Amino acid sequence: MSRNGCSGKSGHWGHEGVSRRQALQVGAIGILGLGTNHLTGLREAYAANGVTPHGKAKSCIFIFLSGGLAQHESFDMKPEAPENIRGEFRPAATKTPGLQICEHLPMLAERSNSWALCRSLTHNINEHSAAHHVMLTGHSELPTGFSPNTPSRTDRASIAAIAGYATQARNNLPTSVVLPERLVHSSGRIVPGQHAGNMGSQHDPWMIEASPFHSTSYGAFPEYHFDHQDRGKPDDRLFEAPQLSLPEGLGMRDINGRLALLETLKHQRQQLAQYEKVANFDRLRQGAVSLMTQSSVHEALNVTQADEKSLERYGRNSFGWSLLMARRLVTAGVNLIQVNLGNDETWDTHGNAFPHLKNNLFPPTDRALSALLDDLQSTGELDETLIVVAGEFGRTPQITLLEKHYKQPGRDHWGAAQSVLFAGGGIKGGNVVGKTDAHGAYPAEQPVKPENFAATIYNALGIPATAAWLDAQDRPHHIYDGEPIAGLS
């Protein structure tokens, strides 16, 4: 698929000369999930018809805060509310007159002219896994047969998968990646909503797994890791350049153990040579694999060995390394990068909320996100890169204490209101869209749904409102289920 819409009546994808079958072919994921098969032919067809991309952004960095960021402790503080609602933190002024955010996000406050807020995103789900599906796919309603415990191919496709399908590959790179880890529950089950769902596994985003799983340690290791319930299990994880795996169907999807990157690539090239004898891989697919052996790609992924200045600005921890990796992948030409700042439920501050946010979560996030904004601004890439920061839901207005598990209070799950940060890609900095009531419980002005959130990303990336993805039976499924959020640009 390209950025130029689908017309179900004409049987063509946007314009004469580009058939729906051709559009389906460009959506087919090739080696390494790169989506480059037949791309040259489709681009030539579009060029012949004078079609040009829409949208302001070439790339999007979707920063996901699994667990749910408390709006009262971050971007929608209620200092006039009763003590059991307003919490311990105090608002602080930003560079934008009249705009205040949490006192523990000082670096972002200094850069408020670069970002905007939507304070009125709302849905009705208060359970983690279901809410992940809602926000990661941009659909308020759960699909028939949905199970929070088991991802299914009847689930809806993630925003990352849709964006990967619906945008053109650049430099033979993946159109969509997720890093530094997939979201895994402490029990070991995969959280639903991260993959291509009913689009099929061939459209799954490319997973860059640089952060090993730990069942009880959360946050920006090694500097800021913590345990929500202080269970005392050691965390000796290493953040390292990932092994690159061929997609499902080539027998390489799940490789156990940590091999050196170059050795892994060498092995995969050997595997590819064997498969080439029995499968007719086209030139673009082979070229994509070759690209993965080039030093420029290695440099983008090997962030722990970055220069000292970059490491100091982003932070020597998994949050900083992840956003530095995303920043480099933008420059390399990846269209959508989803960055999970912490594994499943890292931001789930039921208890010990105020010390964990103040000491462990806000410092690395404030530093790394500010460095990302500065870097993209300095090179002019911020205008062409949409940055969004969201979780699966917000937190309850009332502060609670679960004495069985925590020594200090926190807040429960709350789908009815959350604050979302936007920057770059045509976003007007210092801007606030929407408003919640006096307790930060429900939208009081301009309620925004997950469908609007997803549409904002798609629209910024130049995907037209008429666009659709095609299933195995060549049936179109509309990508947009809402309008982009009004007032952000």
Write the SSE topology.
Blueprint: H1 20-27, H2 39-48, E1 59-65, H3 83-86, E2 91-93, E3 100-102, H4 106-109, E4 115-121, H5 128-137, H6 159-166, E5 176-179, E6 206-207, H7 261-276, H8 283-291, H9 295-301, H10 308-314, H11 318-332, E7 336-340, H12 353-379, E8 385-391, E9 394-395, E10 413-414, E11 418-423, E12 432-433, E13 435-436, E14 443-445, H13 450-460, E15 468-470, E16 476-478
Parallel strand pairs: 1-7, 1-8, 4-12, 5-6, 5-7
Antiparallel strand pairs: 2-3, 4-11, 8-11, 9-10, 13-14, 15-16
Helix pairs in contact: 9-11, 10-11, 11-12
Number of strands: 16
Describe the sheet with the most strands. 8 strands, mixed
Secondary-structure-based class equals: alpha/beta
Strand adjacency order, main sheet: 6-5-7-1-8-11-4-12
Mean pLDDT: 84
CATH topology: Alkaline Phosphatase, subunit A
Strand content: 5-15%
Say what oligomer this is. Answer: single chain
Q: How many structural units, i.e. domains?
A: 1
Any idea what the shape is? globular
Residue runs with pLDDT of under 50 for 5 or more positions: 1-53, 245-262, 276-288
Number of helical segments with 4 or more residues = 13
The helix content is 25-40%
